[in-house]
Design brief:
- The strands form 14 sheets. Strands 16, 19, 37, 38, 40, 41 and 42 form a seven-stranded mixed sheet that branches.
- The chain folds into five domains: 70 residues, Immunoglobulin-like (Sandwich), CATH 2.60.40.60; 96 residues, Sandwich (Immunoglobulin-like), CATH 2.60.40.60; 118 residues, Immunoglobulin-like, CATH 2.60.40; 220 residues, Jelly Rolls; 144 residues.
- Helices cover 15% and strands 36% of the residues.
- It is elongated and about 170 Å long.
- By secondary structure, the protein is of the alpha+beta class.
Length: 905
């Protein structure tokens, strides 16, 4: 039967008993991507195949029905029979053709420092494959090495250690993913993890390094700073700002003029004696003491416990019956338990009595003041003790003692301290023994040795008699030239209180309004009023105390620390210039006025600075392809004060019996200057302008009332600023003495030589570059050396004429005619030989001319050169000199006063 036949064919069983064939299969369903094809009609074997490529990602399974049909009866296949419908299920197998892809382009997260998280964030990737095996993400991985993070198989990232905002503010991680078929993500993903600091009360917006350009006025230190309080309920804030400058000299930038000048600038009256001056020709008792000039050229003396100095007698005439003041800068450590003497006045011989002394002992400052013998032999105050931490803290402090017996007032860094102990003693016994004033130890006259040595540093030790220092002067001496400043905004002036310490190195700000407090802090500035401040670091520290409701201190604000970097100032170059060589007659040296040493002295100070090149220069640099040249150097003249000018003698010291350097003291006093002199020269001191120093130096005169053996004198001038911080060039001056001789009567009139200088020739004498004033008229009889010179010169001229004659004979006739014209100009009249000698040649030129002549004269009369005076041997200056010499000669000729109508040689 047919049904039996179909079933047999479909099951691929052959039957020989029943004859039947299967002609095709029909698939039922919409858009079925399969077709069924008959392979064997007799057996009914067929195959289902796909029409196109299958895609698992589009459809993983297909379900449809299929029917088979036979070939029918008759030749045209009519009466075709169909089978029942069979259901077909087809599953499409997957291949790992896709890689994982992250859902986001990047991931971000923020964490708080100091905390370990179970999960910071999750990254997620997907895979487009259709199968479970290939579409699942089996693993995530952090590609970035050495980071404190890890990631699990589900994409959760966590930190492996506590993070620190100070160490790293943001981490950037690269993360990839793998599917279960081990395909890696096509693109890795970036993960940014920001570290947020825990909210800690602190100062925010504070720059640790603040650069200060000298000469720019005040500089705001905290322009963007504010206080973070973490939303705590604040009731009051107090901040202390300290500017630490202890490493600079004596504590901060102060004027480094001499202590005597500083006292005068601060308004102290006269009578000040400087006991520790910088070594000079007029004050040399501090020579040999170790010094530490510091960063700003303060003159600081070091006492190591073995050295002391004696002050010359007569320097201090302090009477204990009068008020007097002692001031000193001192730096002293803990030291030993023995007495350490700063200043001591004791018996010079025989006994060891201390008349008065200032010393330290066990961190106490003690003033001993023994009264002179008197009628009343009563106890009187003799020792004043102050116990002070400042004495032993190894820092610089300024001490001023105002003594008005029987009371003594002490000021330390401008603050008053009362003695905690005053002991009494009898007055000293009468004695005719002289006293010895010493520094750094006390002189034991009976043992002839020093004792009670000081260990530390001293500077600016002064004694002023007759008048006490007032508080204004003391503050001026102590106050810094640098410090803190604040300009309170009007809107917050009433809400915030600001207080300064005496030298303005620290201040306190107090208020209850945070916004107003921040504004005040932003207006605090650094100011240095010195023209040439000391470069270097000034440390800053802000200490803050905050109070809250119901609690004294609820918020702890850490100290904020930084520093002000004062940049190197443009240093001045002090230049001294003027006439450095001239001659004067002996009569002028012996006159009442003497000779002016620096008649045309000029003091100029310049600074050299780099400036940006202009457009033209930049264009030129571009043309030269030299981009490294960005700046050009320029010099400009500046004005500032001087504090010392010293004139010293070059060579032998001054002989007080017949020579001296003098200056008009009234002119000095008018300008507030002082002068000290010695056999080495003189020193003018005092803070004043360069113009005033010029005027005073113009007045310095050299006198010598015994000039017979004097031919020249040399002097050196040096000026300085800020106690030697800036020093000028060495300006040397040489002055020659012109000696004139009187007429001499000869027994044989035939030996009298005719006048050597013809007045007709005087107009052509070149006197440029010389200054000769009031030369005396006299007839001069030539010496033997002069006759030798005349003979030699005559011989030399004869040889020149002979040479010229031979040259002329060898030339053409026209040239000979021309030479004949020259020969007429060189007619020689040796009956009365005339020689013009310039007595104003420099000392160096004199020797050079003598060396030229030695070749001819040495064998005959070389020894006679010693008898030739400078006026007789100097030749005129080179007439072919350059323009600078001509200009100098013109300036010198203005002072020339020469009467040569009858001057003869």
């Amino acid at each position: 039967d047919w049904m039996q036949c179909f079933q047999v064919a479909w099951k691929r069983h052959s039957s020989t008993d029943i004859k039947c064939e299967i002609c095709g299969f029909r698939i039922h369903g919409q858009n079925v991507p399969f077709e069924a094809v008959v392979l064997d009609k007799s057996t009914g074997e067929g195959v289902i195949r796909a029409k196109d490529k299958l895609d698992c990602e589009l459809q993983k399974e297909h379900t449809f029905t299929i029917q088979a049909y036979d070939c029918g009866e008759g030749p045209d296949g009519a009466n075709m029979k169909k089978s029942h419908k069979a259901t077909v299920h087809i599953q499409v197998n997957d291949i790992n053709e896709y890689s994982p892809v992250f859902k986001e382009k990047s991931y971000k997260a923020t964490v708080i420092e100091g905390k370990k998280y179970d999960s910071i964030l999750k990254v997620e990737a997907v895979d487009a494959d259709c199968s479970f095996q290939f579409s699942q993400i089996c693993n995530y991985e952090i590609v970035t090495p050495d980071v404190p993070f890890t990631i699990d198989k589900d994409g959760f990232i966590k930190n492996t250690e506590k993070l620190s905002y100070g160490k790293e503010r943001m981490y950037k991680l690269t993360v990839t993913a793998y599917d279960c078929g081990k395909n890696r993500a096509s693109e890795d993903v970036l993960v940014k993890i920001s570290v947020k600091p825990t909210c800690k009360p602190s100062w925010q917006g504070f720059s640790k390094r603040i650069e200060y350009e000298p000469g720019t006025g005040s500089l705001a230190l905290f322009p963007s700073m504010h206080l973070e309080t973490c939303d705590e309920p604040i009731t009051s804030i107090r901040a202390s700002i300290e500017l630490e400058t202890n490493h600079i000299g004596k504590g901060c930038d102060r004027d480094t003029y001499s202590e005597k000048s500083l006292h005068k600038l601060c308004g102290a009256s006269s009578g000040t004696v400087e006991l520790l001056p910088a070594p000079s020709s007029s004050a040399n008792w501090t020579v040999g003491l170790p010094t530490d000039n510091g960063h700003d050229s303060d003159q600081v003396f070091e006492f190591n416990g073995t050295q002391a100095i004696k002050v010359p007698d007569g320097m201090v005439s302090t009477s204990l019956k009068e008020p007097f003041t002692i001031s000193v800068w001192m730096r002293h450590g803990p030291g030993a338990h023995e007495k350490e003497t700063i200043l001591c006045n004791s018996d010079k011989t025989e006994m060891n009595r201390h008349h008065y002394s200032l010393y330290v002992h066990n961190c106490r400052l003690i003033l001993l003041l023994r009264q002179d013998p008197s009628e009343a032999e009563n106890y009187k105050p003799a020792e004043f003790h102050w116990k002070l931490d400042q004495v032993c803290d190894k820092e610089w402090h300024h001490y001023v003692l105002n003594v008005e017996f029987p009371t003594v007032s002490l000021f330390v860094d401008g603050t008053t301290f009362e003695p905690f102990l005053v002991t009494e003693d009898y007055p000293l016994h009468p004695s005719k023994i002289e006293a010895q004033l010493t520094i750094g130890a006390c002189w034991q006259g009976g043992n002839a040795r020093m004792a009670q040595f000081f260990r530390g540093n001293l500077a600016g030790l002064m004694i002023r008699s007759g008048k006490l220092e007032n508080k204004k002067v003391i503050d001026c001496l102590y106050t810094c030239k640098e410090g803190l400043d604040v300009q309170l905004p009007e809107e917050v002036a009433s809400a915030v209180k600001v207080e300064f310490n005496p030298n303005q190195s620290s201040l306190t700000v107090e208020g209850d309004d945070i916004d107003a407090f921040d504004k005040v802090m932003q207006h605090i500035s650094y100011l240095n009023s010195r023209q040439f401040p000391t470069p270097g670091i000034r440390h800053l520290r802000i200490s803050t105390t905050v109070k809250c409701f119901n609690e004294e201190s609820c918020v702890t604000v850490p100290d904020a620390e930084g520093y002000v970097m004062v940049l190197q100032p443009e240093e001045p170059k002090i230049s001294l210039s003027g006439i450095d060589h001239f001659a004067r007659s002996a009569a002028e040296f012996e006159s009442q006025e003497g000779v002016t040493l620096f008649p045309e002295l000029r003091i100029v100070s310049t600074i050299t600075r780099e400036v940006e090149a202009d457009a033209e220069s930049e264009a030129a640099e571009g043309a030269d392809d030299d981009p490294t040249v960005q700046e050009t150097v320029v010099s400009e003249e500046i004005m500032h004060n001087l504090d010392t000018c010293e004139v010293t003698v070059v060579g032998d010291e001054l002989d007080g019996e017949h020579e001296s350097l003098e200056v008009d003291m009234s002119q000095l006093q008018q300008r507030g200057l002082e002068m000290s002199s010695s056999n080495l020269g003189l020193v003018i001191t005092g803070v004043n302008t360069m113009a005033n120093y010029e005027q005073v130096l113009h007045l310095i005169r050299y006198k010598n009332w015994h000039t017979e053996a004097l031919f020249d004198r040399k002097f050196k001038l040096v000026c300085s600023e800020l106690n030697g911080r800036y020093i000028s060039n060495d300006f040397k001056v040489e002055v020659n003495v012109i000696h004139t001789a009187s007429p001499v009567e000869h027994a044989n009139n035939a030996m009298v030589q005719p006048n050597f200088i013809n007045p007709v020739h005087h107009a052509s004498v070149d006197l440029s570059g010389h200054n000769l004033v009031n030369a005396h008229q006299a007839s001069v009889v030539p010496s033997a050396a002069t006759i030798v010179i005349v003979v030699c010169v005559s011989f030399l001229v004869f040889m020149i004429i002979l040479g010229v004659f031979r040259i002329r004979a060898a030339h053409q006739r026209t040239m000979r005619d021309q030479e004949n014209g020259k020969e007429n100009e060189m007619d020689w009249d040796d009956s009365a030989l005339t020689i013009t000698v310039n007595p104003m040649e420099t000392y160096e030129d004199q020797h050079s001319s003598e060396e030229e002549e030695e070749e001819e004269e040495e064998s005959e009369d070389g020894e006679e050169e010693d008898d030739i005076t400078s006026a007789e041997s100097e030749s005129s200056e080179d007439e072919e000199g350059g323009e600078p010499e001509d200009q100098q000669g013109a300036s010198r000729q203005q002072q020339l006063e020469w009467d040569d109508s009858t001057l003869t040689y």
